[in-house]
Amino acid sequence: MPSYSRKRTFDLAAVAGLVAGFSSSAYAATEPRTRLVACEAGSCLLVTGRRANTASAVSINGRAVSTDGARKWRVRVPVDTVREWSAPFARTITISVADAETRTDTTAEVDLPIGLLGQVENLASLVVSAK
Q1: pTM of the full structure
Q2: CA distance linking residue 79 with residue 126, whole number of Å
Q3: What is the chain's pLDDT, residue by residue, as a tens digit (131 residues)?
Q4: Contact 68/75 with Cβ under 8 angstroms?
Q5: What is the CATH number of domain 32-118?
Q6: Which of 41, 113, 117, 122 is most buried, taking the most CB atoms under 10 A from its CB?
Q7: How far apart are CA 124 and CA 126, in angstroms?
Q8: What residue segments make up the domains of the chain, in order of their start?
């Protein structure tokens, strides 16, 4: 096999790897995300995501929510409401996007911010010691 053929094969493999890497990162960018933000209710969970059709309905843990935005949507849900909609100590929520045009549902398990639905303990005292 001539050396130029090996180089060409290597170049094609490198390009294929780059394309695969970019496509997987583009896919990951479409997954919904969550973060804690301040709102009128005190603290809210901001959920953001993308959808192919602006008429697609979004639901969180099986409950329809009203979103802001078109293809790039967002919704703020008070933390108390997220607690009501979730199992105790839940670490994820289920986000569903129902596309009425294609009649398909896209569902994703999305991580909650660490400790969001954890139990709050009132400490009588806290002992800290140095070793």
Answers
A1: 0.66
A2: 27
A3: 555 555 555 555 555 555 445 444 444 447 899 999 999 888 999 999 999 888 899 999 999 999 998 899 999 999 999 999 999 889 999 999 998 888 888 999 999 998 888 766 777 787 888 88
A4: yes
A5: 2.60.40
A6: 117
A7: 7
A8: 32-118
